[in-house]
Amino acid sequence: MRNAFADEITRLAGADPRVVLLSGDIGNRLFDPYKAAAPERFFNAGVAEANMIGMAAGMALSGLRPVAYTITPFITTRCLEQIRVDVCYHRAPVVIVGVGSGLGYASLGATHHSCEDMAFLRALPGMTVIAPADAWEVRAALRAALAHDGPVYLRIGKKGEPQVHTGVPTDFAIGRGLVVDEGDGICLLAAGTILPVARDTAALLRDQGFSVRLVSLHTVKPLDTALLEDSFARFRAVATVEEHSLIGGLGGAVAEWLADRDPLTAPPVRARLARFGTRDEFLHTAGKQGYARAHFGLTADAIAGRLAALAAV
């Protein structure tokens, strides 16, 4: 994903002289092509993320289109006040990119995990939150983010993530989910790099005779409410899958939407909601991303087993 981001930002900077890239002391070789193409529009802000966000806000308010990039917890949790006051309060069109989100840096310990970032940023007024599923969605999301008139948070993976799409989704739009596979029994809504696990889950469920719809619900704020209305009206079970805490992420957002619907005017709900994400705990052991996902039950076997039981009720 980060390679796709670096390539796409280089291409977009060549087409738009307002694009500026700020890095929090990472990706120095990764961005060599960008620096060669637009040397006057690259800034290594160092390990000073709060200052980087302030710089980006000032650039945005001066007519530029800044993109700030570093490891997810350092560009979200560490500088949350600057994102809230400098960026969101002024509705500044800054694109904030967190790399290695969720458990992407699982082996480096809890300091590098980010299972709360969507909850933090989703609560900020005016912020758009997007979690692309693969490198193709990263390209589409970056284009959409730079065209958006307001702050955007892109939550991307690190490297080597499985591809879901075969090219840039031409129908990608902020706030509109991408239906990967159709079905009419169970609906899987996944956000971010966990989508391939949801795809494997769908395959296991189909082997058991279930019809499964798979959706990349890449935009966690604003939600695709039309897709949710259709899913909860037609399916027996709807499940959210994310590499994020069950508190405040995609599952939390869908549950809030479900609770806040007007019972007098909204269509009837048929589906039961199941949420899959990380528990309310820190991971105190180290291991690769697959190990961390297994710890939290975020495997195709675990998700399919629980959903099969739910759909059979």
Helix-strand blueprint:
Elements: H1 2-15, E1 19-23, H2 32-37, E2 42-44, H3 49-61, E3 65-71, H4 72-75, H5 80-88, E4 95-99, H6 117-122, E5 128-130, H7 135-147, E6 152-155, E7 178-181, E8 186-191, H8 195-207, E9 212-216, E10 219-221, H9 225-234, E11 237-245, H10 250-260, E12 272-278, H11 289-295, H12 300-312
Helix pairs in contact: 1-7, 3-5, 8-12
Structure description:
A seven-stranded mixed β-sheet has the order 2-1-3-4-6-5-10, sandwiched between helices. The longest helix has 14 residues, at 2-15. It contains twelve helices and twelve strands. 38% of the residues lie in helices and 19% in strands. Helix 1 (2-15) runs parallel beside helix 7 (135-147), helix 3 runs parallel beside helix 5 (80-88) and helix 8 crosses helix 12. The chain has helices spanning 2-15, 32-37, 49-61, 72-75, 80-88, 117-122, 135-147, 195-207, 225-234, 250-260, 289-295, 300-312, and strands at residues 19-23, 42-44, 65-71, 95-99, 128-130, 152-155, 178-181, 186-191, 212-216, 219-221, 237-245, 272-278. It is an alpha/beta fold and 313 residues long. It is globular, with a radius of gyration of 19 Å.
Cα end-to-end separation: 39 Å
Radius of gyration: 19 Å
Cα shape: globular
Helix-strand pattern, N to C? HEHEHEHHEHEHEEEHEEHEHEHH
Overall strand count: 12
Main beta sheet = 7 strands, mixed
